[in-house]
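Structure first, sequence second, as always.
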C-alpha cells in the first residue's frame, strides 16, 4: 500500500510540473523558469519585464527561446506559438541544459524526447536580455579591466612588430656579413656559361643565385665578353670544366672459401639402409607365416566340428576372421620385402660426391669519388685571373676480387658484396645541390688565382672544346704549360683508369686520345691521368673491335704524337711506353722482329687479318693502348703480349697503317 501511495505521489508531482510548463495557469513559475501567457499581457515587453522581475529574485539572467529553436522539425508539445516560455539561469549554457532536461523528461515521455535531450550539439537560437546584477562600481571596474586588456594587446602587437622588424634587419645584416665573408660585394656579377661537356648534366645545381647579380649565357663570344667587362667592375665567369669519377682500394682482406674441383666416389649409404630393412622385413614375414599357420589350424578345427551353441559359433567366426587378417598381413610384408629387394638391385654401390678445395679471394673496401670541376675566371681592376674549383662527393663500397665461379656459395657471396656496376651507377648520379655562398667560399678562400697574361685566350678557355682534327703527318701543339719529363714523349702518354683496371693511351690531337678497346670495354666511367698527375674524364666516341682500337674525347688539352711515314725495317729499334703492372710511365726497348698479319684480341676464329708489328720489347698488362715509338714517331699501338710462361719476347702492336685507317 505504501509503495502505491509513493508511486501516485511521483506521478502527480511530475504531471503538475509538466502542466505548469505547458501553460494554462497564470504565472506558473519556479527558480528555473516562468510561464507568461497572453492573458497576462499582449505586449511582449511587458511579458518580458514580468519574467525579468521573477528571475531577478534569484539573481539570474532571463532567457527567451524562440519558437524556431529546433530547426527543420515541428515544435514539441508545450512550445506552440501562443506560448511564451522564459528560463532563469546564470548564462546561456545553463539555460540550454535546463531546456534539454525538460524535453527529455517531458510527460508523456516519448522516444524523440530522450533523443533530443541527449543531442547536446543542437543549435538553439536565443533571444536574451541580460538582467544586470552588478553594482555601478563593479561595472566601472570591469570597464577599466577591459580597457587595460585591450591596451596590453595593442602594446603586445606593437612589440611583436618591432621584434619582427629587428629580426628582419638582423637577417639582412647576417646575409651581408656572410656575403662579405665569402668575397661577394655590391659590384659582384656572376656570369654562368653553359658548356656541353661530357656528363655536364651530372654537375650540381647552384641554389639561391637570385641573391646576387646573375647573368646566364648559353655561349660566349668576343662581343658579349667585351660588353660585360666594360659594363661591370667585378665579374666571375663560371663554366663546367670536367667531371671525374675514380675509385680506389683503401683496404683489403684475404678471405677463404671452397670451390668445386671435381668429384669423388664413395660407398652409397643407402645400401646399408636397404640391407637392414630387408633383414627386418624377412624376420617379420617369417613370424607372420607362423601366425597364418596357427590361425589356419584353429580355423580348420572349428570347421571339423558342429557347433551347437552361440559361444562355439562366435569362436568359429573369430577364428575365420583372424585367419584372413593373418594372411593379409603376410601378403603385405611379402610385397614390401620384394619391393626393397628390387630397390636394392637398382641401387648403385657407389655415388659421386663433390670434391672441394680451399682457395682465397680478396675482400676490398673501395672509396668511390666523383668530382665536378668548375673553371672560374675573375675580372677585377682590369686584371684577369683563373682557377679551378672542385666539388666532390665520396662513398665507400665493399667489393670482392677473385671469387671463383665454382665456389659452393657463389651466389651468396656475389650478393654479399657491391658490384662494380653499383659503383658506376653512383658515380654517374647527379650531384647534390650547392648553395651560392659555398660556391663563392670555394672561389675566394680555397687555392690561389693565376694571372692570365694573354687576354685573347680567355674566350677560348670559356668556350666548349670542339673535337680537334688529327694531323697524321706532323702533329704539334702548344706545350708551354706542360711539365717536361726526361723523355718529352711521355708528355703525350696518359694512364687510362676504369673500375675494372688500367691501361695506357696517348694524344693523337689536342683533345683526342687513342687506346685499346679492351682497356675501356663496357666502362661507364673513364678517368685519365697525365704526366703531371692531373686527372680528368674521357668519353668513348669511336671504336673498332677488329683492330682493338678506341678513340676517347677529353676535356683537357695535351700534346699529340707524330706518326711515322715510310717503311719500317725489320731489326729496327723500337720503344714501348706505358705502365706495366701499374708502374706508371715506364719505357722498354726492343727490336722489330717481324711485320705480319695476326689475329686480333676479339677475333673468334683466329683469322690473321690485322697488320701487327711483332717485337721483343716487353709489353705487359698496363702497356695496352700505349704507343710504340721508332725514334720520336709512333709506329704502333701496344696491344698484347703472349704468356711469358710459354713464350719469351712475343709481343704485338697494331701497325701504324691500321691506326691511320682507324683515325681517318
Amino acid at each position: 500500500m505504501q509503495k502505491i501511495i509513493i508511486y501516485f505521489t511521483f506521478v502527480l508531482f511530475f504531471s503538475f510540473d509538466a502542466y505548469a510548463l505547458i501553460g494554462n495557469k497564470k504565472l506558473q513559475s519556479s527558480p528555473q523558469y516562468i510561464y507568461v501567457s497572453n492573458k497576462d499581457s499582449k505586449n511582449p515587453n511587458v511579458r518580458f519585464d514580468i519574467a525579468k522581475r521573477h528571475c531577478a529574485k534569484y539573481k539570474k539572467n532571463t532567457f527567451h527561446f524562440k519558437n524556431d529553436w529546433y530547426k527543420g522539425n515541428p515544435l514539441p508539445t508545450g512550445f506552440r506559438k501562443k506560448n511564451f516560455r522564459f528560463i532563469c539561469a546564470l548564462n546561456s549554457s545553463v539555460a540550454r541544459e535546463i531546456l534539454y532536461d525538460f524535453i527529455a523528461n517531458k510527460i508523456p515521455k516519448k522516444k524523440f524526447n530522450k533523443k533530443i535531450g541527449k543531442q547536446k550539439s543542437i543549435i538553439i537560437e536565443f533571444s536574451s536580455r541580460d538582467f544586470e546584477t552588478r553594482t555601478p562600481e563593479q561595472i566601472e571596474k570591469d570597464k577599466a579591466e577591459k580597457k587595460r586588456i585591450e591596451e596590453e594587446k595593442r602594446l603586445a602587437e606593437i612589440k611583436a612588430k618591432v621584434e619582427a622588424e629587428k629580426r628582419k634587419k638582423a637577417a639582412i645584416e647576417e646575409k651581408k656579413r656572410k656575403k662579405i665573408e665569402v668575397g661577394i660585394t655590391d659590384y659582384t656579377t656572376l656570369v654562368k656559361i653553359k658548356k656541353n661537356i661530357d656528363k655536364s648534366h651530372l654537375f650540381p645545381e647552384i641554389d639561391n643565385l637570385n641573391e646576387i647579380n646573375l647573368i646566364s649565357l648559353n655561349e660566349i663570344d668576343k662581343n658579349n665578353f667585351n660588353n660585360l667587362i666594360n659594363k661591370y667592375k667585378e665579374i666571375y665567369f663560371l663554366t663546367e670544366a670536367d667531371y671525374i669519377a675514380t675509385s680506389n682500394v683503401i683496404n683489403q682482406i684475404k678471405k677463404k672459401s671452397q670451390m668445386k674441383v671435381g668429384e669423388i666416389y664413395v660407398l652409397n649409404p643407402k645400401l646399408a639402409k636397404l640391407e637392414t630393412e630387408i633383414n627386418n622385413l624377412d624376420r617379420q614375414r617369417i613370424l607372420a607365416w607362423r601366425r597364418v599357420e596357427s590361425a589356419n589350424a584353429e580355423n580348420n578345427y572349428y570347421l571339423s566340428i558342429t557347433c551347437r551353441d552361440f559361444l562355439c559359433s562366435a569362436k568359429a567366426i573369430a577364428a575365420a576372421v583372424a585367419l584372413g587378417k593373418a594372411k593379409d598381413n603376410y601378403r603385405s610384408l611379402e610385397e614390401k620385402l620384394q619391393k626393397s629387394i628390387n630397390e636394392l638391385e637398382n641401387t648403385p654401390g657407389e655415388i659421386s660426391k663433390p670434391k672441394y678445395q680451399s682457395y682465397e679471394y680478396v675482400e676490398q673496401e673501395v672509396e668511390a669519388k666523383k668530382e665536378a670541376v668548375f673553371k672560374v675566371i675573375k675580372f677585377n681592376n682590369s686584371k684577369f685571373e683563373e682557377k679551378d674549383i672542385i666539388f666532390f662527393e665520396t662513398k665507400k663500397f665493399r667489393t670482392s676480387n677473385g671469387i671463383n665461379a665454382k665456389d659452393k656459395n657463389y651466389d651468396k657471396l656475389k650478393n654479399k658484396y657491391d658490384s662494380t656496376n653499383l659503383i658506376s651507377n653512383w658515380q654517374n648520379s647527379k650531384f647534390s645541390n650547392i648553395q651560392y655562398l659555398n660556391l663563392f667560399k670555394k672561389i675566394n678562400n680555397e687555392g690561389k688565382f693565376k694571372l692570365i697574361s694573354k687576354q685573347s685566350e680567355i674566350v677560348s678557355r670559356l668556350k666548349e672544346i670542339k673535337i680537334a682534327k688529327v694531323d697524321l703527318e706532323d702533329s704539334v701543339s702548344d706545350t708551354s704549360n706542360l711539365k717536361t719529363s726526361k723523355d718529352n714523349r711521355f708528355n703525350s702518354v696518359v694512364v687510362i683508369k676504369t673500375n675494372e683496371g688500367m691501361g695506357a693511351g696517348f694524344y693523337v690531337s689536342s683533345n683526342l686520345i687513342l687506346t685499346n678497346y679492351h682497356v675501356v670495354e663496357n666502362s661507364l666511367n673513364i678517368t685519365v691521368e697525365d704526366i703531371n698527375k692531373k686527372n680528368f674524364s674521357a668519353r668513348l666516341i669511336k671504336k673498332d673491335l677488329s683492330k682493338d682500337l678506341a678513340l676517347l674525347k677529353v676535356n683537357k688539352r695535351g700534346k699529340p704524337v707524330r706518326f711515322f711515314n715510310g717503311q719500317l725495317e725489320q731489326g729496327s729499334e723500337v720503344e714501348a711506353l706505358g705502365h706495366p703492372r701499374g708502374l706508371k710511365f715506364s719505357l722498354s726497348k726492343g727490336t722489330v722482329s717481324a711485320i705480319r698479319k695476326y689475329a686480333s684480341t676479339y677475333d673468334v676464329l683466329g683469322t690473321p687479318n690485322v697488320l701487327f708489328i711483332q717485337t721483343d720489347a716487353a709489353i705487359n698488362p698496363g702497356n695496352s693502348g700505349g704507343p710504340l715509338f721508332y725514334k720520336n714517331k709512333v709506329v704502333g699501338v701496344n696491344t698484347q703480349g703472349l704468356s711469358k710462361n710459354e713464350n719469351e719476347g712475343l709481343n704485338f702492336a697494331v701497325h701504324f697503317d691500321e691506326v691511320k685507317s682507324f683515325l681517318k
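Margin note: The two ends are 129 Å apart (CA to CA).
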